[in-house]
Amino acid sequence: MADTARRPVIGVLCCNEVAQRPIQSVATRFVAPLARWSGATVLLVPAVIETSDAAALTAVLDGVLLTGSRSNVAPARYGSDAAEAALDPARDEVALALAGAMIEAGKPVFGICRGLQEINVLFGGTLSRCCPGHLNGGWQHQEYEALFDHRHEVRLSDGGVLARATGARRLTVNSVHEQAVDRLGAGLSIEARAADDGVIEAVSARPCGADVLGVQWHPEWDVGGSVASQRFFGLVGAALRGEQVAPLRVS
User: Fold this and answer.
1) Catalytic annotation present for 191
2) Which domains does the chain have, with CATH numbers?
3) Chain segment 80-127, per-residue pLDDT in tens
């Protein structure tokens, strides 16, 4: 359990990007809700293998958020020889090593979009190219404000973490991704599926006494206007503090 005398510290994974030269990058939208809705202090974790000591970071952090990214998980990570563009091998290495160490230490791990996919691969699952209905077509070239315009419904699993936290049976979520869960990782439970075609949209587990939760959509994008998104970040904060989130009852 995190020390209640201080705000818990959550590590947020960066990605490798190029802006004239190589940089570490994470969108501010992933960071800001962790302060307001999770009550956490954020520590950015570089996706640089030489600087990442999973054991040392695990000793410091109370939890980890694996963010979304413009890159995809390398197929070799889940035993595939499929071609895949926009890779970030160092992000794969750092994210999987750190998440694995955190889980073994009984500390919570959360994932958004790419982060869900990393969790599935960490648990031995596989990924596939996502069907067109879940991809905001040509998203790499769209204006920032239009990135998350594509929305669809998901069905929440009865009695699941998200269903209890939100008090809902269905949510309308955004969708911007190119990979999706194919074979579910061992030990993971399905938290949500797409209402139209059954694509797995959220997963959870509690393997070593702490929460693991990943969602395929982007709750950080509309958190200010979405109770469900606020509840997601509330789950993050509660897990960091070793607390439980009271179920939301919808009248």
Assistant:
1) no
2) 9-241 (3.40.50.880)
3) 988 777 899 999 999 999 999 999 999 999 999 999 999 999 999 999
